[in-house]
């Protein structure tokens, strides 16, 4: 592998996480932006750390392999911070006595920090996802020589990342804010990945349906086609049309020609003459850096989807997952749903660092006690006991049917993917077929739903699940339906029965 | 099932005596017996005697009773049928009209009298007594953390065990928990197989999963078998067949039974035949929607035009309480056969049958397109 180590001074820091979700710390430190001198700060015990030091700690933790000087070299870029955090629908929320204003709290805790952005890397088999990410991480100094060797081996394991592993991808992508789609520019390879059998289409549709709106497309392996501009334009035009159809806005898609193997146009502007002739756009890292952080709904009731359950050190056990909305502080009680058991939060860790509070958009590990480990399963949701979620086994939803081989009828058995939850379900009723663009009812009680149609359906799951209406909490109102190893539809919850 | 006695008149009235020999026969009995039939069988009744002095003694008596069935209850796990009804025959211990619940079990004969034996019931008796239909298959559908151990007989799919464990994911610097969890999960599945699968009867064990879980499990199981010197597993290694499935849920059985490797091994069992018929129906719905219909109204109308080539019908519709409705369906089956069509009666215990039940229980593939039916609205309000 042509890894060159002269790349230094990484502007951002990247951590590899499980299921190819990459947490990118965005922006830079603003020293002393928000002072923690507000009154009524209940949890700011003397032990708590000021925003500045805390952020430093995190950076240090993330870039443990790099030298400390890197922290100072940060891009001169407009910081997107708290002005983004707006709360759209003011829903009546019961607030516990003595609770803090979550928004103010969030600003105080995170106002001065880089924002964490979760990115998922998707693409067809052998498009070069791992090589590209490996190289990018390497270039950023996240991976040293020894680790690099490990990555090379891991790539072999990556190879079968085909349809059997899409459930894992859904779990990963449902946690992501932005996505990087890797396509192979090699003649023939792009086409294989893009045709109906390939994963490029399915992945792109999936990430869009899971709520990712910003997408970077890395047109990889450009070295294989001699850095040809014609080939790049061809891929851009083909893929662009499709992505627009899939619902991405023009301004939110960026195409970048690069080579993961040669390391061209990844972290640094390209050096390849053939590419420089016609390309003057940003390199991949700049594109990633330019992603906007989506608003974090911190003032909504607390919800966290459980992604993993494991024994931690000490008492209790840990659950990890993504905080969808709201905030959680150590010492609070949470409701484990759908069962409805109460548990006590003993501690919260973020990136292996203990912390007192966690906000929407974070991926903490929460230590729970007062509940048996057996009673918490992957896909469960931790919620605020004062504002629990609806628990149901029957929902009405609006679905978008993908490119399917057999039509959906009533009684069609599917696997219901909701966050990290997998649940067998049945489409019990086809209520109406809708017009794709206007959403008007085309036909009531259709006999079947053919490919690429929109419809309102009723779905019944085998066990009760917790969902939210899409209009209330977007993250928990989205789901996917899969059958026989294929994603057949994406949907939004419109009614809970 | 053994047919011991049969006496059916031309008009359909008559009695049949049957001896269930295995669990599946109880399922057949469940489909044969309908409400208001008379069933005669041996049972145990608690009888209270009052002596001349007024003291009462109660003792259990084995006796033969005939009841008029009012309620039928089928227990899939124990494979028992409970029939509740009133006594209709004079008996030494039980008064006429007294309620009794008869249990039908394996190896206990019973006599069934019906006012009318229709073609579907008679066919069911023939099918149940056919000794060649005996391909017992076990299937283990699994994914990481979830496994179903099922037994598939020609007309039943029974979930014998469901193993659901959380396996911690791999995380930085701590792979042991993941591996331990996986080992524990494999161990449970293996124990489940040993407990629930009788290798004397089962001819083939299908192990299905997405990805490499099945291979890992297979390797684990036989490593363990060698370590513990487990003869049962080692001797039956050849019976295991690894197949791909997209998930560990029960409905993945549908994919497994359609797998070419499985089809060749299972040749022509009812289960795989049903899966294929269902697939053909969906295929037709995709390519020529005017030649595939479901729902009683559409199917009846297609039948009037003698358009039905294959009729898919769930045995659930024949078990309905409504006699008129049952008659209607029996007439439909007969009429399709008369016009040269094929009738497939799905077992509602199979996955494909479950799906058909959800799809109103009745569907048809037509000989020629009937686009006019599409405009007819299937009026149903359930």
From TrEMBL, chain A:
Domain Tr-type G span(s) in chain numbering: 156-296
The residue ranges crossing the membrane are none
> Carries keyword Protein transport?
no
Chain positions covered by the region annotation Disordered = 26-89
The record, for SUPFAM superfamilies, names:
EF-Tu/eEF-1alpha/eIF2-gamma C-terminal domain (SSF50465), P-loop containing nucleoside triphosphate hydrolases (SSF52540), Translation proteins (SSF50447)
Where in the cell does this protein reside?
A: Cytoplasm
One cellular component (GO) term of this entry: cytoplasm
**InterPro entries cross-referenced by the UniProt entry:** EFTu-like_2 (IPR004161), GTP-eEF1A_C (IPR054696), P-loop_NTPase (IPR027417), T_Tr_GTP-bd_dom (IPR000795), TRAFAC_GTPase_members (IPR050100), Transl_B-barrel_sf (IPR009000), Transl_elong_EF1A/Init_IF2_C (IPR009001)
Q: What's this protein's name? A: Tr-type G domain-containing protein
From TrEMBL, chain B:
Query: What PANTHER family would the database entry show?
Result: PELOTA, PROTEIN PELOTA HOMOLOG
Q: Where in the cell is it found?
A: Cytoplasm
What's the family? Belongs to the eukaryotic release factor 1 family. Pelota subfamily.
Does the keyword field hold Phosphoprotein?
A: no
Predominant localisation class: cytoplasm
Question: What do the Gene Ontology cellular component annotations say?
Answer: cytoplasm
Q: Which InterPro entries match?
A: eFR1_2_sf (IPR042226), eRF1_2 (IPR005141), eRF1_3 (IPR005142), eRF1_Pelota-like_N (IPR005140), Pelota/DOM34_N (IPR038069), Pelota_N (IPR058547), Ribosomal_eL30-like_sf (IPR029064), TF_pelota (IPR004405)
Q: Any idea which UniProt keywords this protein has?
A: Cytoplasm, Metal-binding
Name by which UniProt lists this protein: Protein pelota homolog
Alphabetically, which GO biological process terms does the record hold?
nonfunctional rRNA decay; nuclear-transcribed mRNA catabolic process, no-go decay; nuclear-transcribed mRNA catabolic process, non-stop decay; ribosome disassembly; RNA surveillance
Give the protein's biological function.
Component of the Pelota-HBS1L complex, a complex that recognizes stalled ribosomes and triggers the No-Go Decay (NGD) pathway. In the Pelota-HBS1L complex, pelo recognizes ribosomes stalled at the 3' end of an mRNA and engages stalled ribosomes by destabilizing mRNA in the mRNA channel.
Q: Which cofactor does it need?
A: a divalent metal cation
Domain eRF1/Pelota-like N-terminal, which positions? Answer: 1-130
User: What is the organism of origin for this protein?
Assistant: Ladona fulva
GO molecular function, one example?
metal ion binding
Q: Which Pfam families match?
A: eRF1_2, eRF1_3, Pelota_N
